[in-house]
Amino acid sequence: MLVDSHCHLDLIDPELGGVDHLLAEARLRDVGHFLCVSVGLENVGRVREIASQHPNVFASAGIHPNGVAEQQISAEQLLGLASFDEVVAIGETGLDYFRSDNAQQQQQQMALHVGVARELGKPLIIHMRDAAEDTLTLLENEKADQVGGVMHCFVDDMVSAQRAMDLGFMISFSGIVTFKSAKALQQVARQIPTGSLLVETDSPWLAPVPWRGKTNQPAYVHDVASYLAELRHEGFDELSKSTSDNFFRLFKFAQRDAAA
């Protein structure tokens, strides 16, 4: 069974049937576990609630870099939000210079997230867009290698991927890797060691081919995995098992649900 290592179940249009329906649809496509990721104070409670109601869903706690201009969090606040059993990761956090120009503010908040992750021993979920050098340097300087994490929705080059892997981070691919325009990213995806690979949807955004243009959902991580298996000349079952094993090795507070 696959794991969707990064989705936003609370943000998917309820007209698609709600969380229970989305999980059932994913189950039909061999997707059994889900990491529902927080992006801000306004949804971290809902994310944790979903995880508490479904043993095969896990939660995170954090503030997305695009949100720190409007809302910032203290270490004490984040510790309180992230100390629940349902919360298996810190984030998503990181740097995004594509949409925002408050680099110093983003860096301060990202460093705070790394510190909380180290204190709790929970891995990080990193968002990195047009900010690879600053993101990786901050992770190095703040000793993020003590907890590791995932470079979610990875779109950068192999040099950046290797720096991240040297810090104990896994590389997660979303539907972007299936796009015809993503030739350079596909070349990177071929090179990532099996033990460092994860798959995700980032739903409700970035639906993979053949669903591009539609609202993304966790069931579609099957299409990401299928594409990667073919790209890497691996069997689908092999890639499904390895990425799922990688997920549970990284997110050690997440427990497999035997019923999933």
Write the SSE topology.
Layout: E1 2-7, H1 18-27, E2 31-36, H2 44-53, E3 57-61, H3 75-82, E4 87-96, H4 103-120, E5 124-129, H5 132-141, E6 149-151, H6 158-166, E7 169-173, H7 183-191, E8 197-199, H8 221-231, H9 236-250
Parallel strand pairs: 1-2, 2-3, 3-4, 4-5, 5-6, 6-7, 7-8
Tell me what you see in this structure:
- The chain has 260 residues and is of the alpha/beta class.
- The protein has one domain (2-250): Alpha-Beta Barrel (TIM Barrel).
- It contains nine helices and eight strands.
- Helix 3 (75-82) crosses helix 4 (103-120) and helix 4 runs parallel beside helix 5.
Summarize, please.
The model has no long low-confidence stretch (mean pLDDT about 95).
